[in-house]
Amino acid sequence: MYPYIKRMSSSINILDVGTMKGENAYRFIELDEKNKIDTIFTIKTTDEYNDLIDVNLKAHYGKVIFSEPKESVDLVCINSNTDLDTTLKKYYDHVKTNGIFCGNNHSDSKVKDALNKFRRENRIGTPISVALDTWFWYRR
Length: 140
Fold this sequence. Notes:
Blueprint: H1 2-6, E1 12-19, H2 23-31, E2 37-44, H3 50-57, E3 64-65, E4 73-78, H4 84-92, E5 95-103, H5 109-121, E6 129-131, E7 134-138
């Protein structure tokens, strides 16, 4: 997703839903050469990996906040380890207009089924793109 983040304006905010070890947030920060990312809001799905989250993100606490944002964000990442039907519905409205809604494991049939159902129910006609098993579309 980072090539698409690089094209966004500066000072972007990200919501990472379903983080387990903090690797997604860490990777975004690691690739952010131009310091465009202002905040990564992180919603954990389990406390099982708290030690690994500390290892991966401790140096970035302040940029990484473990709560939902109060306002819309530029990018929402959904991890496939969540209850996708519920998660897609709950977090889609967190994406700004022209922001990106994305997630992982597009090759998994349960992910494809959940996405197709969600897009159909919400009449989303924006094309869905897939790159390296990551699905995404721009919210219009």
